Amino acid sequence: MNEICSKVLSCEDISANTANELADSFTKLAVETATVFQKENMTAQETQVVASKAVPKWDRFRLLTFVLTASMRDIGDKWVNGCGPLSAAFTAEEIRKLVRALFQNTDHRAAFLASIK
């Protein structure tokens, strides 16, 4: 999972189409991988909790999948001034790098990048 995250984070430009394809593939991978940890009568949420405890960087991988298809507003809502769930998995610089790779260079993006501390 860490290697996958590192490869995506190393990209300087990710088109919307590529981001969607990656997110779809990552979602399928997560679902299939999680079944390894699933026990009888477990909910999907319970399975994710078990997987996150068993697989290093599981939460980071799942949050990366979210970021790939999220809007800047959604990313900001999960960053929450460095106190949200994204901040537990990514540094501010990593989030800024993802935003630069995923979104066109606009004044809105520049302001959003400046707000990530």
What ranges have pLDDT less than 50 throughout 5 or more consecutive residues?
none
What is the arithmetic mean of pLDDT?
93
- Give the overall silhouette: globular
Measured as a percent range, the helix fraction is: over 70%
Describe this structure in words.
- The protein is mostly helical and about 120 residues long.
- The protein folds into two domains: about 15-70, no CATH class; about 70-115.
- The chain is about 70% helix and about 0% strand.
- The protein has eight helices and no strands.
- It is globular.
- The relative contact order is 0.14.
Summarize the entry for a quick read:
With 117 residues, the protein is mostly helical.
Would you spell out the secondary-structure blueprint of this structure?
Blueprint: H1 2-9, H2 16-35, H3 44-54, H4 58-69, H5 72-79, H6 85-89, H7 92-102, H8 107-115
Using brief descriptors, characterize the structure shown.
117 residues, 72% helix, 0% strand
